[in-house]
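Protein data sheet
==================
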Amino acid sequence: MKILTKLINKIKSLDFLFLTFSTVACSAMSFVFNVYTKRIVPEEPMGISSLSLMIVAYLNYAQLGVLNAYNRDYPQALGRKDYADAQKQRNIAITFMLMMYTLIFVVFEAWVFLKFNGKFGSDQMTTYRAYGYALCPIMIFLKSFDDMANNTVRMKGFYNKSAIIGFLRTVLAFAIGFVCVNRFGYYGLYAMTIASALFGILFFYKDAYKGAKLDFDFKYMKMMVVGGIPLLINSLIWTMVQNVDKHVIITFFKNLPKTTDAYLGIYTVANMGFSTMVLIPMTIGQVFYIKIGRMYGAGATKEELLKKSSLFTSLTAAISGAACIMVLYILPIFVQIVMPKYTAGTTAAQILIVGVAIYSTTIIFGQIFSVLKLNKSLIANSVALCIFNVIFSLALVLFVGRSLNMVALGTGISYALYSLLLMVKLSMKFKYSFLKLITASWLPLLAIVIPGIVFYLVCDSIYVAAGLALFTAVVVCGIITRLYFRVRG
């Protein structure tokens, strides 16, 4: 029994790893779904779907920072054991989001009706647009409450429960999405997103929403909006950064052999690579954000926060490096065999994967600015990334060539530069060794990625190259993991 108890406690102590593995499994199903849709749905309607999801991303900011403030302050209230304030924050966030997203639904649906009135059914692409746009306010409504529920469960410390439910609801949503796309084509593209959010709200209800009440304390709402606006602005800038490449395509890829919708559709291969690359570091970063918030609420020093972040970062960097090489090798073969209509986006995806992999190693470092409420620095960092992305993407497209590869290269370079800037600012602000920061982040990743890229370019056989890259990744990951657990004790 002692051995079993010890094993259970050990598993609980590795909650972030369990959550990461669950998230990877869920992402794998989403990846398979995205690939399958590309076998069924052509480039142009896929581009319309990509545009609709971009609109959903922007509609997320209708909550005016209340959800951002909640995600930051709720775990700190739990860390202080101020459960009354935690409950108040939850009630206010729910009430405010219901108000705003109901308003968005009414206004947005009215706009869709007026814009496409009389045109629906006249042209296939126009019908696709009207359908996708009409679903946008519905998707953001469900997704926002799903995100809040999932975050609340994690902030309460139920990481393993979040992982299990997350996996279960993804399996169910995957099955529904698969059937809908197979049966309805483009019209079924949004089914998995909607089903996943619905299942999330339902399964997380007991721990996230049970006992919650509507609270129309407008003074408290204002306080949360004011407190969350800087985080919302930072997040909005991030959304703009993540969509700069799409805006460049929409603006500068006109009068080319394909329509802009078609180019957006092809570029979804690069978006898949991006999503795959940031998945693990983002997941670990979310857990770290909660843990460090509770640490800071309980009185931890800034130095303790930096040391904790370095441990998580080293492990994240090793895993990201291995993931980067794996995707780099598998993606072109996979695209050629499974979705040959989208092979034009393969190189762009590979370029973006490497640049984003470098950035992903410093995601956790960026969380420190948020936890310590260094809002000016947080916004300045994001503005810098946005400027980098605009400059490099536009420069390469305008002066080198209007191709998806140039768009991806500009985006990849901007993410890498942002990562470097983040470490420089962190080192200067907290008088912390820059060498320690870059050793914990870039070094483990580059130790895997550089040999992997060299093997890919030099070896005649991709299988030999993959074998050498895999061996390098396993060795580096093993070393980093061993050091992590030795330091963590």
